[in-house]
Structures are given as C-alpha cells and as structure tokens.
Design brief:
Length: 85
C-alpha cells in the first residue's frame, strides 16, 4: 500500500516537472499530472530503459522524458479538438 502511494506521488511530481518544462498544463489538474506522469514513466522506460536514478521503482530521467512526450501530445490533441468545436 505504501509503495502505491509513493508511485502516485512520484508520478505526480514527474507530471508537474514535464508540464513546467514544456509550459503546458495537463487537463484535470493534479489528476492529469498523475496520469501523465505514470503513463510517461511507462513510456519513457519502455523506449529508453531504466538508466539513471530510481525512485519508487521509476527511472527518473526516462520517466520525465516520457512524461514530456505524453503531456505535449495530450495537450496538442486536446487543443486541436477544442478548435474544431
């Protein structure tokens, strides 16, 4: 249970860092940041491996890179959908 809480906290921090780096906010606020951080961590580790420092079982550098990709693509797609309506 405690490990799951750590994963959520680290996912949120990773999502916030990615949002700050590309200066775009995820929809749904903190919930979006947690989801974007967790999906980004999975994507980054899948593409780049598990090198660098690990926190709560997540490699931080690949996770942040993956989260940047997720945040960018999510905001790009959602802004495109908002322009259509």
């Amino acid at each position: 249970m405690l490990h799951a809480i750590w994963i959520i906290i680290v996912g949120a921090v990773i999502g916030v860092i990615a949002s700050m780096i590309i200066n775009r906010n995820m929809p749904l606020g903190w919930v979006g940041n947690v989801i974007g951080g967790l999906i980004g961590a999975w994507l980054g580790e899948s593409l780049l491996g598990t090198w660098g420092p690990n926190v709560a079982g997540m490699a931080i550098v690949p996770a942040i890179i993956g989260a940047i990709i997720v945040v960018f693509l999510t905001t790009l797609v959602l802004s495109g959908l908002n322009k259509r309506t």
